[in-house]
Amino acid sequence: MTTATLSRWDRFRESFLWYSFKRDKVAIASFVVLVLMVLAAIFAPLLAPTNPYDLAQINIMNSELPPVGMQGADPAFPLGTDAQGRDMLSTILYGTRVSLLIGFGAVVLQAALGILFGLLAGYLGGRVDSILMRIADVQLSFSTLMVAIIVGAVFKASFGNLMFGEIAIYMLIFIIGVAEWPQIARTVRASVLAEKKKEYVDAAKVMGFRTNRIMFRHILPNTLSPIFVIATVQIANAIISEAALSFLGLGMPETQPSLGSLIKSGFDYIQSGSWWITLIPGLVLVVLVLVINLLGDWLRDVMNPRLYKG
Amino acid sequence: MLAFLVQRISQAALVMFVISVIAFAIQDGLGDPLQEMVGMSVSQEEREALREELGLNDPMVVQYLRFAGKAIQGDLGKSYFYGKPTLTVIAEHLPATLELVIGASLIIMFLSVPIGVYAAIRPQEWLAKFFMGVSTVGISIPVFLTAIVLIQIYSIGVTVEWFPEDTGWGQWLNGALSTEGGMPSYGRGEDLTYLFGTWNSGFFTERGLMHLVLPCISLASIMLPLFIRLIRAEMMEVLQSDYIRYARAKGLSAARINFLHALKNTMLPVITVGGVQIGIMVAYTILTETVFQWPGVGLMFLEAITRSDIPLIVAYLMVVGLIFVVTNTLVDLIYGLVNPTVKLTGKKA
After folding, report:
1. Confidence class for position A286, pLDDT limits 50, 70, 90
2. Which pLDDT band holds residue A104 (cuts at 50, 70, 90)?
3. CA A106, A112, A115, A116 torsion: positive or negative?
């Protein structure tokens, strides 16, 4: 896929995207932090001093040790331990992994649904459009969090605690993906409506291509940049939604914690003074969501210079 | 106008119908009412007879119609846990949630408009940039985390011992940075004033207000950044329009232009978004109420889930659905009234 003169890499280096990235300190810093966190999450099994899923490595005698720098800390546990004696550093690394996995998974699912429904609504128009967009409107007016909480509650009630715990990751990806598809569908629909009027679509129609081919091969590639922008922000939203669901006990079980369920398990002990079990995972969560949001803001400014909205 | 009204209301009725179908499906799909009513010892024949009597063998449509008919008359079944009609249980818990939402909305209104307008008028000043930075960070903090941090700081208290105690300034800094645990963080307190019906208000006593402070700030914290960003963006767009330039050319004072001409048109879209967001706040009350053990409908709903109190879950869905539908319809109607440029019929999102 290289052109005669420029390779893909060269083209990227010539692009406006790279140009503005180099000049934006906030974007560079956010990107670096995000990459570090993603790498730490991917290589959690190598980096973590202990495996929090392995009950044999946990000693209840070590429970509620404070982080290094406070009185009574054990240097073996740099960020302290939780109420079950698990090393906080290890659980946070593994928890970030679960949170990121659910965030990415949910956005992939909602992008798939959103692109499909957005393309159908925008290109076919008419009745398909009004039905799909009505559903999207109603779902959005109910707030995606509410929809996710209700679906989660129903799943939990029908599967039972144990079963729900085992399949929680897939459930959460499904719940958040389904709850948030209207966001992407609306964006896709708006750009499809703009693209549809252009000449290349007429040309494709005249050449007798099938509707599917025009939708997916011709129009879709031209609507990708707004999808990219909104998907970035949606990852941050999905991670927050997951944390909220887990905090309510409708998400990841404590044996396989995400950042949200770590915060929840720590909240029971905050009155006894063990603030680190809650606040350190909380800080990690905020930093993770913040850098993704900052990158999303930057991307939106670059890809859509007309919008100065911030 | 009449056509618009009819269209909006019939749409709301359609949405309520869909919600009731979903609620009915949940009630039907989860749990068997027979099991809740009779023990293990009842024979198969008796069960069948009871089934027939309760109408559980009727076709789905008939069962749904019975469910909907009762719902319209205000009968959504009895809560397993409370042993009272579900709507009564909800009516007892609703005032607490509404006070939370009212308190948070007041905070949002009084802070977001001045900050948003200021950030739009003077976008280059450091204070405006500071506000925008804080609101980006604010969006990234989940509401339950804000609540937990507030409890840690203002209820449990933080003792700071970073500076040397033996010097005067060190002692002073430690004292200034430490917070005394003074704010109540659990429940609504005892000092409630009886208003009417099931409404006991915390707005009229000092203790009651103290109990409201932390939960309301937490609930407001999630929406405040959104509103600041929205008001700033809308205001900046309005400030670039021709009529503002014309007003400037006429030599009107900046204050008059900003607050009379520009603010009016800024607030139009803010009303729509704002109305919808206040509905959305109901979802966040579940999180806030869980952290503060606030005895409202959100906490009640979550407890109903843990107790598998299905009638109560269903009733909550119907009531919250109704709240959402009513607020959205009202917001649409108000927007249609205040903004004459909206085409009243066939308005598309």
Report:
1. very high
2. very high
3. negative
Return the closest-CA partner of residue A36 out of A217, A307, A291, A230.
Answer: A291
DSSP string, B205-267: SHHHHHHHHHHHHHHHHHHHHHHHHHHHHHHHHHHTSHHHHHHHHTT--HHHIIIIIIHHHHH
Phi-psi region of B192 (alpha: psi -120 to 50; beta: other; left: phi over 0): beta
Give residue A88's pLDDT.
81
Shortest Cα–Cα distance, B191 to chain A (Å): 24
Query: Are B140 and A142 an interchain contact pair (Cβ–Cβ within 8 Å)?
Result: no
The ipTM estimated for the assembled molecules is 0.80
Domains annotated on chain A, with CATH: 23-46+87-307 (1.10.3720.10)
pLDDT, residue B263, reads 84
B306 CB neighbours in chain A (<8 A) are 249
- Does B134 contact A at CB distance below 8 Å? no
Q: Is the dihedral of CA A223, A229, A235, A238 positive or negative?
A: negative
Name the band, by pLDDT with cuts 50, 70 and 90, for residue B346: very low
Q: pLDDT band at residue A70, thresholds of 50, 70 and 90?
A: low
CA torsion, points B326, B331, B333, B334, in degrees to nearest 10? 130
Give the pLDDT score at A130. Answer: 84
The reported pLDDT for the residue numbered B37 is: 62
The pTM of this model reads 0.84
Spell out which residues of chain A touch residue B29, defining contact as CB-CB under 8 Å. Answer: 154, 158
Task: Give the three-state DSSP class for A42.
Answer: helix
A195 vs A188, A215, A221, B281, CA distance in Å?
10, 10, 10, 36
How are the residues of chain A apportioned to helix, strand and coil, as percentages rounded to the nearest 5?
75, 0, 25
Nearest to B136 among A142, A244, A297 (CB): A297
Angstroms from B43 CA to nearest CA on chain A: 26
| pLDDT confidence bin for A5, thresholds 50/70/90 | low
Give the gap in angstroms from C-alpha A134 to the nearest C-alpha of chain B: 9
Q: Of B214, B235, B211, B14, whose CA–CA distance to B113 is shortest?
A: B235
Q: Which of B15, B29, B136 is closest, CB to CB, to A293?
A: B136
- Residue B35 pLDDT > 80: no
